[in-house]
Specification:
This protein is 80% helix and 0% strand. By secondary structure, the protein is mainly α. It has two domains: 190 residues, Growth Hormone, Chain: A (Up-down Bundle); 185 residues, Growth Hormone, Chain: A, CATH 1.20.1250. Helix 1 runs parallel beside helix 3, helix 2 packs antiparallel against helix 12 and helix 9 packs across helix 11. The longest helix has 30 residues. The two termini are 28 Å apart.
């Protein structure tokens, strides 16, 4: 791995750490500072909405301002927004603000975070597209996805260790890591060759038929996954009669960890060695995801539950690089930033709807989120068998001609 990619991935790991700490640190403190469950949900969703809105803007900005500059701006914005959130939580713990003004302070911090940190992923994705050949595009995108998974694993461990020094210390530590990544990027990261043609600015919309199927894939897989994730604790209690709160948390943690480990193994080993094409990845990943969800709905033991989460990690590890690589290969060099912005926006859009839908349909039957998700995944999988997914070899030949 080159120095530039290592620096880039370090920044993405810090971003993943911050996202996981929200649930590990902020979640348990929400009631202590006077927030209701609804207010906590709004705070989490607000940044996702900001990501949906601003990611396409930052993707296009990276074309004219440079991938490096936008990536650094995102890291600094992430550090600022996250520090403001940590400060707001601390103010709440000190009881210095009433519940309503505290909520709006926290909401402002989440919006700042979402508006600025949403620059990180588009700039990084476009950077990888700029610096990898067509035949290696899926492997490169797998590293981008893996970095978030590494952050997700490190986050809870870091949170548990540093929380002994103070409840919000892990969040400040995450902000410091983001600033370190920004400084390293400023000093060592090399700006890739510029592809933008100022007389031919990219005008790529979300409904551009070249990339829409891949945005739809991102939306569906994240909507389904977050819907399943939000009902997992209830499902463990209802299906397996695990009623002690500590035991439910332990089971859910093992399930999520098994998913993250499998996802990482696939993305940092199998995807780097076998160089699987986006066409193969997308025509298998969504059917595997559907099969796992159906098994989930019929699981009868905790071992089966862990296996299902591992299966979700496997299918996600195939889908993520396949979606990003296919969309990247479908457009020209001067459109990579614009497309990267939409690729960052689509998953966040799914995360806006998934948690609410999961909670609503769970009331009808505990298996509805999994069965419904399986149906949607099968439909998306069929789409990828029908459309012409770009082939890396054909794209490479076209680029050389």
């Amino acid at each position: 791995m080159s120095r530039d990619k290592a620096i880039l991935l370090f920044g993405l790991v810090t971003y993943g750490i911050g996202q996981s700490l929200l649930y590990v640190v902020f979640g348990p403190l929400a009631r202590d500072i006077g927030l209701t469950e609804a207010q906590f949900g709004i705070l989490i969703s607000s940044s996702n909405i900001a990501v949906v809105i601003f990611s396409p803007f930052w993707g296009r900005a990276s074309e004219t301002k440079g991938r490096k500059r936008i990536f650094i701006l995102g890291l600094i914005g992430y550090a600022a927004g996250y520090s403001l959130l940590a400060f707001g939580i601390q103010v709440g713990l000190w009881a210095l603000l009433a519940a309503t003004p505290l909520f709006f302070l926290l909401l402002a911090s989440r919006l700042v975070y979402g508006m600025l940190a949403s620059a990180i992923s588009p700039a990084a994705t476009a950077y990888i597209a700029d610096t990898t050949e067509a035949k290696n595009r899926a492997a490169g995108m797998a590293l981008v996805a893996a970095s978030g998974g590494i952050g997700t694993i490190i986050g809870p461990a870091l949170g548990g260790l540093l929380a002994k020094l103070g409840p919000v210390v892990p969040m400040y530590a995450a902000s410091v890591l983001a600033l370190i990544a920004a400084v390293l990027s400023g000093i060592k990261l090399t700006e890739p060759a510029r592809h933008v043609d100022l007389n031919n600015k990219a005008k790529v919309s979300a409904f551009d038929r070249r990339i829409f199927p891949y945005l739809l894939g991102w939306f569906v897989i994240f909507m389904v996954f977050t819907a399943v994730q939000v009902i997992t604790a209830f499902y463990i209690e209802d299906r397996f009669s695990v009623t002690v709160r500590a035991d439910v948390i332990e089971v859910a943690s093992i399930a999520l960890l098994s998913m993250a480990i499998v996802m990482l193994i696939v993305q940092i080993s199998i995807m780097q060695i076998w160089k699987l094409t986006p066409r193969f990845l997308l025509r298998t990943a969504f059917f595997i995801f559907a099969a796992v969800l159906l098994l989930f709905a019929n699981s009868s033991s905790l071992i089966a539950l862990y296996f299902c989460f591992a299966g979700m990690g496997f299918s996600f590890a195939l889908a993520a690089p396949g979606l990003n690589a296919a969309a990247s290969l479908a457009v020209g060099a001067h459109e990579q930033g614009a497309v990267a912005g939409w690729l960052a926006s689509a998953p966040a859009f799914g995360m806006v709807f998934g948690p609410a839908l999961g909670g609503i349909v769970y009331k009808f039957s505990p298996n509805v989120p999994m069965i419904g998700g399986a149906v949607l995944s099968i439909l998306v999988g069929i789409i990828f068998w029908v459309i012409n997914i770009p082939d890396p070899v054909e794209v490479a030949v076209k680029e050389q001609s």
